[in-house]
Structure formats: structure tokens, C-alpha cells
């Protein structure tokens, strides 16, 4: 029995008004839009029950409803209904189903279900062609289905008709053997296109190279059999670039231990050792001399605050005696290109699980984001297929969808988002980069158990909790390990369900964890169960000489709908699931707790010490692989790289007359301008932990760092920042990486962080990473990470890489093209502050305050936003003089800034980044809505032109304002560092700057600056 | 002096229970966070408390309308006990999503003391977008929750906070003085140069009470304006205090509301 409930607003409907505006803005003559919410319920229900259901779903104050499809307006042109494709997560339907179950006290059975859709009635001058275009703009066919009727048809049919988009799978529930005794050509085909179905079609990419397939061939030859499909799929997941990070792990040129071990991990190990030794040395020194060392710079170098690095789902540092702070940043680029909303929301709730999955479960306390998009004004279409087939979504739709996805994921989960950025470059058109990060809080101990450690034990139940398994997200891991092209799987798309995860998260980190009900936990992310279970089995606690294993009964895994093949169940990346190791004796209690919190928990197997990954389906063995082969069987590859310095033409720029105008243009640049519209839709106040918010001061200026207070009854805080300079990669990835690290560190220091207490995270988003030139760039960037981190003594605690951010497709004329992102490295920085009342915001505080710059400015314009601004399509200015980071000098300077902030000498501070000095100064002024009088005559450093002085992106610079009464103290303290007094904050609402020769070069109203800074995204 | 006890509901996507507990505790109450299913399993629990709080959050992801599904869960399982509770000399507060819940449940405005009927709605903001910002509020009621408060500032964070009633009901709300809080252009709006009304809500309405005044529903998060460092302008205030040689305050304006609740019972 299918019932269709339609609900319509009785009063002016804001959603309809917004839709109408959206449609009209595309140039269609639409005079009216009416929105009807539709609930399709497939279940036997009495008429009394139906009436109650309608009462529950209809707010009588504002809406009316009908089961008889009687709500259409008198007159309209088109009726358009948009619902989900079968099997796509439909959160409203899930809630409705729960409400109905709660009402009728009976669960829905197989084949029964609730489906939601939206019915739109469009009026106006809309012909069939228009209506088709409108429908296209309103839905994404990868996840949604649209159908439409004109007025006449609608009348004849008496409505849209009842349609329940139930998943009907008639495929292969059997397990197939895959014949690997074939030639290389067929092996390559299996790797690239997937296992062949019986009808000849292929199951989607395994992303296994020939060398890997040969290793698998050899293994099974020895075993005397062919692999099953699930075995091969499982190996493909585990060995994927996405999971094994082979490019960072394999030997490269002379670096035998690979880039990760050689540069990133080694940096952390050396720093930790140095910091630990410093404590011991200090203790010894104190013992001998009886007094403390007087050099404060040395004092702060003490102690290793890292607790968990690289091994767990997040990295962790000390917060205080009782708590740790965790941090992890992920990317979700490929899924966001196809379904921006779904890709982004699963990105953010996915990285939340890296927090929940840290140790025995940390509580997410803040999210961060960073989006790299193509300019939203770019309307030139792009196609995945030849002859204008498989169009890509426009940059604007990708941007809107990604922003909305992170909004929904973060807000619904009750996790504040205090920090984020957007960066634009046309090379992100094929694949956007979607960075999402989560900071967590976890007590170190509960009842003598260390909560940051975990290990499954033999005999523990393998328990899956949270969402159910469907076809969504199959081949996510292998798909993101390859360039996107027409073969990219649609099933890779997932939609998030933040509330299912919120229930799971609360039940774990607020209850089950502290009751000690499980021994280990991990996220089901890339590769699904296949990766999480095998990973936990590898890390088990066992007597010496024994090795972990697992035995899984796959038929016990709860499914969203019947008909999934075992290999699909095993590798599906359906969201909001975690795998736990629950001791047999604690299962009852655990199960009861989960049940009472509305969280589904199911035993799906047992951890063992069998050294085998054993999977059964309805009694028969379908996977039997040695754990050792599964994790270590992949052959190492020796990578080689090449590097050559690119020389660009040095731009010949006429001396610029109107620098006020250039500065206003700069303030409107996509990558510099206010993104207040995001800050004001991402909740940054929830949990009551905000201290320095994303928008600061009277002028609401976007800050480069944020401060939160994880425990409301503690004075300690956490400072967060991040930075990236992808355009510098065109010149030198070493300086690109160095500048990113320097800026991330400096952003923290400017707000009051102790530079000796900072930890870093790296997220490499590279392109074409099999090409020697790209690997050469990667090697240089990784070396910079080592060099800078070891000078600053800022250890890396976590990182992630995504190596193939390339798009292969076609342009409008059908010409093949490849778009690769510029090599991008996002550096995130985090630090604990002892007293949040000491932190400093960016906004100018009082007229008369002095403005200083600390650090030197040079003619370092290569890859700068200024050169970018002056570029045209036919004349691109890149330049060569990319900013050079002088880390030793900066390190010393940052300590003095810290000291000055601690002493209360600094009233406001802004680190100088993209757009240079002029942009940083204007932000300070806008923050306080106060004017500036600046003279660059004594600007420390050496610049040859006024425009270069204003817009150079030289690193290691911070602008601070100081109360006049603190002048002497401040200057005395900073002595020995390069710094200069540039001018004063003024009551006159004007930005006035004199140049390097002392003549007036910038003079315009603060109001104009505000307008320029805010206009770009005003209507977003 | 016996501290009043507060039961703060949690579960199914509510997410402000911890900071709400912190606010009540800081004000001198003893607050417990209890999962709705634990209350359903032990309905007598409610009799142990003097104050019920429905905190902010995203119960059921706002699916089927914000606050709706949670309200129906309460209605289907706890209505008798809740109706009994509000009959006694008790206080109830719904903040943001909590307001949406008790509005759907009909605890508010419950004209003529008829609890259990939906009489008002909280609709999508005019922008149809979730909005996070600070607002100024003016108290227009004599509710015990707001005693002694004239104006205060707090942040809002919601997508569905546009208050709606039909004209007749609006008239009755005004007549009975049930419109408790209105958005005004005050200190923080001036500071950040933002309009008073953040969502296009009817007649700037930010919160209402029932006829007894003991049940308050409000969109702004008073519990997120609890500490001095919650304020958007605290860095400027800090610099001002510092130069005047004054110490920094510890608390923010939101505390008063929670203190009022405690004071009501002692």
C-alpha cells in the first residue's frame, strides 16, 4: 500500500520565494512558484493511523495537507517533482519513518519505506525547453530524480501519481572467482576498469597497477587457486594510494625510506627527542646551579607535548594535566566534484569520525574548512565525456553545494566552525579541493585506563554501529586514487546523515567510552569494513610472536536494502559507521546502551589470533588471505623524480599611478575578500567555546586564526590557524611549502600563541603524481617541511595526502583537455594557550595607537596576488622572486612577539599574508572602523617601488598596534629585531599611506575600503 | 538553602546540553543532563526537578520541521507527566531548538492555559539560511526568567526562527503580555553595524512565554553569552578596562537569566 501525503503552506512561503528568485535570476520568466512537500509512505496503515501521521507532519498554524493530491494551485504551467534516486540517503524520510514507528509501535519491514520529494508548481511564460533547463538547474541527476508534467497532463492524471523509489537489486548476490591466469593486457584491464561481470560490463576501477596484480597473481598461484571477487576488491582497497599512501611511502631517488619517513616523520622524531632532552638537560642544570636559566628563549623550548603522532585517526597533543587535544584535517575532493553537497557533508562528518575514532573516542569541539575553487564567475562548460556528454557542474554550483554541505554537516552535529578560508584559481575547475578539519578533546585517563590507547583482543566481538550499508560510496578509495574521467563511478557519491552520527558520537564519547565497554574503535571511511576490520586486526594486543586476525560473518551486516553482493557489503563506504572491538562479557551492556540511545549495533564477527583475514557469507568461506600479505604484500616501487627551475619572464610593469584604486581592487579579490556570508552561516558559538571568532572587530573582518576554550571552567585555550600558497608552486614548491608553514605559525603567534608550543598538520594535494617533474616538486616541498619544522621546532602530528587531483575531459568544442590543480599544501597549526584573556584580536583599538611592522619587506612579488591581479588571459604575470623564508630570523622574532603579547604591550595584531602589507593594514583599520596614517619611508627591508612595498608577500611579518604609553617598553623589548614604526591609528575615517619616498600614495575613505572588502560575495 | 534541580533533555541531535548545564550550575542550580529515552523509561524522574530545560540543537536534523519530531516523541510518551509538571510551581525553558520543540508541543503560548496545541510557528528565516550572529534583546515581560533584565545581548544560531502567528493570536499575545523578548538595535548591533532583526521575524519577536510566565521560549542562546570572553567585543573592552586600570569581569550578560531561575526557588 502506497500513501502519498502532500503538504502545502497556507501563508507566504519563504522557500518558494527564494526558489522563484533563483529561477528568475537565470533569465526565465517565472511569475509564481508553489512548493509542496511530499511524503510517500509504503506500508499498510489504517485510515486512523494515516490521519495521525498527517497531523504529525503538518503544522496547522501554517500548513494544510492532503492524501488525495488535491493541493495544486488553480492554474500553473508545470508541475515538477524532485526526489532522490533509489538508495540515496533520505534523512527526512528516515526521521519520518522513526516517527511513524514510534506512533504505531511497529517497525518497517523489508519492502516498506518512506520517501520524500518536493513538488513545485511553476507559473509564467515557460515553454517545454525552459522547463527542462529549469529542472536541470534544480537537481543533480547523480543523486536526484526529476519528473514533470504540464498543466493539462497533470489534470488528466489527477496529480503526479504515487511512486515509491524502492531499491530493486537483481544483480549477482553470488561470489565470483576471478581468473588471474591471464595475460598482462587483461590484468591491466582488470586493474583499470574492474572485474568483469557475467554480462561483460565492468565493476569499476580497482586502481591496481600491473606490478600489484602480478604480486596478487603470484600469491594465489602459490595458494593453488584463483581469488574471489571479494578478495581482489579487498586487496585493491587496502593497497590503494588512498589507504597506503604509496607515493609518500615508496623509495624516491636517493631517499630509500620514502618522503614521509625521511622528511615528515623524521622531523617530528627529531623535534620530540630534542624537546624531551631539553627537559632533562634543564633538570640537570637546575640541580647543579640551583637557579633557573635566565634566557627566556630557552625556557619555552622545553618538553615534548606530542602524545600521539601519525598512528591514530588524529594526532594529539597535551592540553593540560588531564586532557589531550586532537586534530585532523582531511580532504574530500573527488566526491565534491561530482556531488558538491554530498561530497562536502560526508567530508566534514567523516573527519568528525577521525576524532570520535581517536583513542577510545575524543569529543569533536571545533571544525575547520578550506575550499579551493575555480572562480564562480567562470561559466564555460566542461565535459567528462566526448561530444558534450557528461557535463561537469559549474564552479558556482560546486561552490554553493560545498558551502551548503559543510554548513549542514557542522551545524547539525553541534560542532562550532571557528576558522576557514576560500582560495580561488582556475586550475581547481576540474577538481575542487575541500579541506575539512576537526579538533577533539579527550581525557587522558578514566579509571586507570589510558583513553588515548586502544587495542582489540582475540575473542572480542567485531561490532559495527551507526548507519546501515548500501551501495553508496563503492570504490571511493580506489576512485580518489586516480584522475577523474568519464569512467568515474557514480556510486562513489554519498550523502551524509549527521544526526545518525551525532547519536553515535554522543553514545560513545559521552557514555560508553567512560564505562570501558570496548577495547578498540575505528572509523569506517575509505574501503569501509574491509579496511577498518583489517586495520584493527593488525593493531591487536597479543602475546609475543602471535599475529592478529579476524573472522567475519558478512551476512550479519545490516543492510539498507536487500540484494547487495558480499564484495559490495565488504567495501561499501556507506557513512556514519564505526567498527568496535567489544569484549564478550561487555556486549550485553554495550548493546543495551546503544539501543537506548537509538544507535544500531550489530556483532558481525570476532577478532582472532589466526593471522588470517577470514570472511564468510552464509557459512561458506569467501575470503581467506594472510594478514601479512594483505598489509605488506604490495611490492615497493622505486620512484624517480626530476627537477628543473622554471624561469618566467619578469613582468615589465609601468609605475602605477593610482595605488588607492589598486588597493580597493585587491580588497575585492576572491582569495582576499570577506567571506562573511560563510562565517555567518557556520555556527561558531555552539558548545559555548568561542573566544576569538571568525569575524573580528566592529568591521567584522575575517581572521586568519581563531581561539576556542575547550573547557568553560578553565582559562586555557586552543589557537588554530592554517595557510597555503598554491601559486608559489609555479616558481618553487620549496618556498611554497616554507611560506605555508611560516604563515600558519605566524598567524598563531600574532594572536598570542607560544611559538615553542605549536604543532603542525600537513595536507598535500598534488596532481599527476606519477610524473617525475611532479614528484620532483613534491620532494622539494617535503624537504621544506623538514627544514622549517626542525628550525621552528614545530612537530607534525598528523597529515594526509591526495595525489591525483587531475581532471581529464573535454572542452566545449570536444577537444580533450587535462586540468591539474597547482601543487597545493595546506598547513594547519594548533597550539594551547595558558590564559585566553591574553590573546589578541586583529582590530585596531583606539585612535592614537601606534602601528609597527615587525619583519622585513623585500621586492618578493613572484606568484603574488598583486601579479595575479595585473595578469590578463593573454599575459600572465608569475615572476620569479618568490618570497624566501628566513626561518632562523623569524623564529627569534616570534618569541619576542609572544613575550610582548604576554606582557600586555600589544593591542592588536595581524600577520601579513596574501595581498601584503596594504591588505593587512586595511584589515586592522576595518576591524576597528578607524583610520590609518602610515608612512613607509622607514619600512624595514628593501623595496624598489611603492606598489611592491604595499603588495609584496615577504614572509615573517606581523603588524601590531601599541598604546602610546607602551611605546618605550615595546621598542626596548623588540630591540635586535627588524621592526619599524609606520604610523598611527586615526580618528579620521581614511586609509592614508605615504610611500617609500615619503609622498602620498594611498588616500581613500574607510567606507570605500569596507565596500570593496565586502562587495564580492555580498549576494552569495 | 536548597539548590533547585534542573533536568536538561538530551538525545536525537540536541547539542547544547553541556553549556546549558554549565550555565545553570554557574548560576547556582544543580543541573542534570538526561537522555529523553531515560526519562521515558523512568517517568517519575520528572518529579525530582523544579526546572526543565530543552536546550538548543538539531533534534532529528530539523527533519519534518525544526523541533517537530522531538515534540511528537515527547507527546507520544511523556505528555501526561509534562502536563502535570507545568501545573506545578515549576519553571520551563526552551532555547532555540528547545523553543521550537516546546512551541510544537504546545507548551507555548498555551492561550487560556490550554497546553498541548500548536498555536505558533517558527518558520525558515527570510534568507532561508542558517544565521549565526549576535543580537540585542529587550525584555517586555514580567516572567520570572527575565526579572530585573531590561536589555541584554546574546548570539543566535538557527535556520528556522521566524516567529509566525495569525493576527488574532498576535493580538491576544500582546494583550496578555506574552511577547517576552524583542530584537532591538542596541550595543552589539551598533558595535557590529548589523540590523536589529536578524531573521525577518514578525514584529521583532525573539521569545514568548505562556500565560503564567513560567514557561519561556527564546531563540537567542543566553548560555553562549555567559562568560566575558563570549562577547564579540571583549578584546576592545579588555583594552578599555586595562587602560583604565580596571580588572576584567568574569561573566557575561546571559548569566542573569539562569540566576533568575535559581532565585525563583530560593
From TrEMBL, chain A:
Which positions in this protein are listed as binding Mg(2+) 2?
A: 354, 523
Catalytic residues (UniProt): 242, 332 (proton acceptor)
Q: Which residues does Mg(2+) 1 bind? A: 330
Q: Where in the cell is it found?
A: Cytoplasm
- Known catalysed reaction(s)? N(2)-formyl-N(1)-(5-phospho-beta-D-ribosyl)glycinamide + L-glutamine + ATP + H2O = 2-formamido-N(1)-(5-O-phospho-beta-D-ribosyl)acetamidine + L-glutamate + ADP + phosphate + H(+)
Domain Phosphoribosylformylglycinamidine synthase linker spans what residues? 202-245
Q: Which residues bind substrate?
A: 353, 494, 573-575, 802
Q: What does this protein do?
A: Part of the phosphoribosylformylglycinamidine synthase complex involved in the purines biosynthetic pathway. Catalyzes the ATP-dependent conversion of formylglycinamide ribonucleotide (FGAR) and glutamine to yield formylglycinamidine ribonucleotide (FGAM) and glutamate. The FGAM synthase complex is composed of three subunits. PurQ produces an ammonia molecule by converting glutamine to glutamate. PurL transfers the ammonia molecule to FGAR to form FGAM in an ATP-dependent manner.
What family is it from?
A: Belongs to the FGAMS family.
The name on file for this protein is Phosphoribosylformylglycinamidine synthase subunit PurL
TrEMBL record, chain B:
The terms under GO molecular function for this entry are: ATP binding; hydrolase activity; phosphoribosylformylglycinamidine synthase activity
Key words, A-Z: ATP-binding, Cytoplasm, Glutamine amidotransferase, Hydrolase, Ligase, Nucleotide-binding, Purine biosynthesis
Q: Do you know which Pfam families this protein is assigned to?
A: GATase_5
Q: What superkingdom heads the lineage?
A: Bacteria
Q: From its record, what is one biological process in GO terms? A: 'de novo' IMP biosynthetic process
Q: Cross-referenced SUPFAM superfamilies, in alphabetical order?
A: Class I glutamine amidotransferase-like
What InterPro entries does this protein's entry cite? Answer: Class_I_gatase-like, PRibForGlyAmidine_synth_PurQ
GO CC terms? cytoplasm
User: Would you tell me the protein name for this molecule?
Assistant: Phosphoribosylformylglycinamidine synthase 1
Q: Which species does the entry assign this protein to?
A: Candidatus Gottesmanbacteria bacterium GW2011_GWB1_43_11
